[in-house]
Amino acid sequence: MSNFVIKTITPTSPILKKYVDCFYIYEGISSSKHTYIAFPHFNTGLSFIKGATIKRSQRSLVISESTTNGLHIEILGKYTSPVLIQLDGLITEISIIFKPLGINRFIKDNYQSIAPNFTQEFTNSVWRHFGEDLFSGGDDLNKLESFLVSQFSENQDLIAIEESLKLLEKGNEQTTIDTIAAKVGLNLKTFQRHFNKHMGCSPIEYRRICRFRNSLNSKLNSFELKNLTDITYEEGYYDQSYFIKEFRKLTNHNPKDFFKATSKVDGDKIVWELM
Q1: Homologous superfamily assigned to 157-261
Q2: pLDDT per residue over 241-269, tens digit each?
Q3: Among residues 35, 34, 40, which one has the least CA distance to residue 3?
Q4: For residues 253, 259, 260 and 263, what is the CA-based torsion angle, rounded to 10 degrees?
Q5: E strands along 132-202, which residues?
Q6: Ramachandran assignment for 267, one of left (phi > 0), alpha (psi -120 to 50 degrees), beta (any other)
Q7: What pTM does this model have?
Q8: Domain spans of the chain?
Q9: CA distance 79 to 251
Q10: Which CATH architecture has domain 4-154?
Q11: Which pLDDT tens digit goes with each residue over 38-52?
Q12: What are the angstrom distances between the C-alpha of 227 and each of 36, 56, 230, 231?
């Protein structure tokens, strides 16, 4: 990993700490090639990329060095199966990793309308103008924090969805989506429509992703050597066979093979399968 640099940095602003998990910086060199598989996540990534061409397919994103292309802004949607990312050459990428519903405080359009696919270009003119300035020199992260604070706006429409996330993140399938909708004061159809609009996925998909991510944290970041049975019941799966089945859907691996194949990058913020 000596031909590229990856860093994750926590925001300093109190406002941003609430809604941004971290900033992610990638720097490659002309001869570098970095390929990895990323797995479903409840967070949302938005990246400013300098000097690159972008090729997208349904399940892959290739970012290649370019001397003719300038700024590119890429935003990720929600996905429920692994995706392949490839970065080739001299590329600088500065990403914002938003917590669930975090990005909704910094953009005026609803999330589903701007990120219906696994990945796409973000064409907002205000963000693009800022992006041009971001790479013009100086302290990039201070610029980024100042810009985000300037874009921050609370949204009352998110209150019910935010409450529902707390219930969904507990992972217990015995609590139905209908019950969760009622607890946040919405009928089922209205709740599902609002959830998809702001989260870019259904409540059931979000709960699946949360349980998967919680199981990763439980296994990779615990001081105890937890076995699959422990994780199965801690994260609210029916039984171990159901846990393995869900894991295969989200990672294309059974759990044991997955934990052997993946690596934590720059501490515990990033879990990838490096190729």
Answers
A1: Homeodomain-like (1.10.10.60)
A2: 777 888 888 888 888 888 787 776 665 56
A3: 34
A4: 110
A5: none
A6: left
A7: 0.88
A8: 4-154, 157-261
A9: 11
A10: Sandwich (2.60)
A11: 999 999 999 999 889
A12: 26, 38, 5, 7
Distance from the first to the final alpha carbon of the chain: 11
**Residue type (1 letter), 270:** I
What does the block give as tokens for 224?
């105890």
Residue where the block lists tokens 């409840």 = 42
Measured distance CA(33)–CA(68) in Å, rounded: 19
Which residues does residue 121 pair with via DSSP β-bridges, in sequence order? Answer: 74
Q: Which two tokens stand for residue 113?
A: 């309308």
Task: Enumerate long-range contacts of 8-15, CB under 8 Å, 24 or more apart.
Answer: 8/97, 8/266, 8/267, 8/269, 8/270, 9/141, 11/145, 12/145, 13/145, 13/148, 13/149, 15/149, 15/152
Non-local CB neighbours of 118 within 8 Å, separated by 6+ positions: 58, 59, 61, 76, 77, 79, 83
d(CA 170, CA 172): 6
